C-alpha cells in the first residue's frame, strides 16, 4: 500500500511537471506567430528582410518541438496506428502502452542521447553561433536535444507507473476519467 502511494505521488509530480512545462512552452507559439507576422509585414509592406528574425522563428519552432514532446506524450498526441488498439480492453491497452514504452520509447531515447552527445559537445566546444545571422545560441539549441531526451524519459517513467498501476487495478483508467469528465 505504501509503495502504491509513493508511486502515485511520483506519478502526480511527474505529470504536474510535464503539464506545467507544456503550458509554459505553448506561449512560445504565440511569440513565434507574432515574429512571423512581423517578418511578413516588414518584408511585403516595407521591403525589409531580417535573417535574425527568420532564424529566430526556426529556433522557436525547434524549442517548442523539443520541450513540448513530453507534454504531447502525456496527452497521447503522438502519431499512433490504432486499428487494433481502440478495440482492446483497458487492460490490453495498458499492456500495449507499457510494452511500447519499454521496447520503443526508451531504446529510441537511448539512441538519440548516444548519437547526439558528441554533436552537442562539439557545439559547446566552439560555442557555436549561427553562420548566417550570428545568433550566439546554437550550442544551447542543440543542447535541447538532450533536454528532450530527459523530459521524454521522465514522462516515459510516468507512463510506465500509470500503466503498471492500471494493470494492478490500483488506478482508474484514463478513458474512464475522460468519460466522467465529459458527462459532468
What is the structure about, briefly put?
By secondary structure, this protein is an all-alpha fold. 79% of the residues lie in helices and 0% in strands.
Would you mind describing this structure in some detail?
- This protein is mostly helical and 184 residues long.
- Helices cover 79% and strands 0% of the residues.
- Helix 1 runs antiparallel to helix 2 and helix 1 runs antiparallel to helix 4.
- The protein starts with a helix and ends with a helix.
- The C terminus is likely disordered.
Q: What is the strand content?
A: under 5%
Query: How many helices?
Result: 5
Largest sheet: none
Poorly predicted parts:
175-184
Distance between the termini: 30 Å
How many individual β-strands?
A: 0
Helical residues, percent:
over 70%
**Estimated radius of gyration:** 20 Å
**Element pattern in H and E:** HHHHH
The helix/strand class is mainly alpha
How is the topology of this model organized?
Layout: H1 2-46, H2 51-74, H3 90-125, H4 138-167, H5 174-183
Can you tag this structure with a few keywords?
184 residues, 5 helices, 79% helix, 0% strand
